[in-house]
Amino acid sequence: MQPESIRKYKRDMVHMEAVLGALRAEAQKIDQYMRADLARLEPGIDAKLLEVLNYGLFNGGKRVRPLLTAFASRLCGNTDENVYKLGCAFEYLHAATLFHDDIIDNSETRRGNLSVFKKFGITAAILAGDFLHALAMATVGKLSGDKGLEIFCNATTGMVDGEFMQLRNAERHNLSELDYHDAIMGKTGLLIAAACEIGALYGGGTAQSVKALREYGVHLGCAFQIVDDLLDYLGDPAKTGKTRGNDLAEGKITLPLILTMNTAEESDRSRLLSILEKKSERARHFPEVCMIIEKYQGFQTAKAKASAAVENGVRALQIFTDPNVLHERTVLEGLAGYVITREK
Amino acid sequence: MQPESIRKYKRDMVHMEAVLGALRAEAQKIDQYMRADLARLEPGIDAKLLEVLNYGLFNGGKRVRPLLTAFASRLCGNTDENVYKLGCAFEYLHAATLFHDDIIDNSETRRGNLSVFKKFGITAAILAGDFLHALAMATVGKLSGDKGLEIFCNATTGMVDGEFMQLRNAERHNLSELDYHDAIMGKTGLLIAAACEIGALYGGGTAQSVKALREYGVHLGCAFQIVDDLLDYLGDPAKTGKTRGNDLAEGKITLPLILTMNTAEESDRSRLLSILEKKSERARHFPEVCMIIEKYQGFQTAKAKASAAVENGVRALQIFTDPNVLHERTVLEGLAGYVITREK
User: Fold this and answer.
1) Among B53, B94, B99, B153, which would you mutate to test the A interface (most chain A Cβ atoms within 10 Å of its Cβ)?
2) Domain ranges (residues) in chain A
3) Which of A126, A135, A168 lies at the smallest CB-CB distance from B104?
4) Where does the pLDDT of residue B2 fall: very low under 50, low under 70, confident under 90, or very high at 90 and above?
5) What would the CATH number be for the domain defined by B4-341?
6) Which residue spans within chain B are E strands per DSSP?
7) A265-290 pLDDT tens trace
8) Among the listed residues A309, A194, A316, A176, the one whose alpha carbon sits nearest the alpha carbon of residue A253
9) Nearest to B127 among A96, A131, A164 (CB)
10) I want to staple B194 with a disulfide (CB 3.0 to 4.6 A). Which of B47, B155, B182, B320 is the partner?
């Protein structure tokens, strides 16, 4: 049972392809600006650091955050190209968190290649992350002023806080939906919301526009993470490039499981808890866990929640009625649809 | 053969004690502001994160960087207390780099206690460092504006670049004095210089005053690191809390060794190089290496260079002739003297 707006996106794949095409063209511009930053830095920095940055930044990322900054600013009427420079800051911070997360999670690979940590070692991964963090802050401070920097720093400290919360939650198997919501806000929502909000500020948006774009970003970010967590259960490994069931194996409790625990009969609920208790048993019981989740429609309900989040996000864009920015609004709406329908 | 200014400081220990007393009182104020920051953050952050921050920030640090910010700003005529808030940013960034460095160096202890990394694990040390990094940037951006943030970010990226340079240098045993200077600027000089420069900017200093305080900071920072490196050879473990010879054992080539290599006869030079080549042999040959350095007065020459740096730093303060800030100038001069005479 999918909401009308989502069915529309699925039907209209021609439209979606057009949106994705527009985004790809813009993503290439972001890459150009990132390469220009590195070229500017090159004479002053160590060759190895430059190598790490090149490797870690140009590895097939879709540049979602910078694209959001660029489109949000244009939706608010901005036409200058410096917004790409500002957008790069979000990719730098995102990459910095990935460099550090791969150490924390001991991840071998990232988007099909060796992670920075595995390729260059822990020292390089920590330091290059710190470098990008500082570069991101400097960029945001320079281009979006005090207000933008404050939002950006709050997103960063919020992300760290979210990771600490996840560490704490890792020992608990009875998470509430609210716990989950807090966790995905920290993991994904805050930075995506900041990318939209700061883009709107940079674009000279009114308080109402800035608020609307933040709202859009919060919902988009949360939907993005819910879908990510669903793909861990249901994704096609040939498309996602990852095996299924990693979250369960690591004891990460995501939305489908939470929803199931909330509605399951006591016998199913204790069965799930007993599987979760024994770390070494979890992977083996993945098919059984999926069946129990199916029984209580946990996947469907999670999907519906992601769709509802996207609908709320798209609804926030309704205030942008100026025909001159119809293209930008359409692209942002299309991006929201893509978040729900994506298979990788 | 010590320069007059340094002999003066050594003779005048009463004066030095007065200076250190003034600094200690101010350091307590810095601690109060840091505790106020944590109290403000407490309701919004995870309890474990707060515990890590409390542990890592209040571990007996001398608050040299915030003190420099406070005194530099007052030397330029500032009288408001918000400068302590600004100063805290330098302690936050300093602590962030220590959290990360302890992982990189696999350090068990920090100032006689377990390092954050050893006490709370690698994940907490990476994340809490990232949190403090963002908090530092937000504070500097808010209180010292674009210009201050730019200097601060350049110091951070320069520190990372310096660490990459050290990684590269770790494979070379024929470092030049210039290589060493670049390394200690990255490791210590840049952040101390930024603490002084941003303090001066915040204090409303003229371009000339800002430049002079940066100059003072650069020299102070370099002298500080040279003395640190000398203590690794000559320090009293009962006072420093560290065993001697760690740098040699790790193959870190510091100033006394560089100066010796530059002037030694070929036979001594090749002997030093052959000791450095064999990692497992270095610690055993520490006494012999010290004797060769002594033979060529490598320690004395390094000390003289630190003294010369401090003298240059103090000389930069001569432009501050206003009797109203005589106390501040005296404290900064005294701090410079302390850097040279310190035994821990």
Assistant:
1) B153
2) 4-341
3) A126
4) low
5) 1.10.600.10
6) 109-110, 113-114
7) 999 999 999 999 988 889 999 999 99
8) A176
9) A164
10) B155
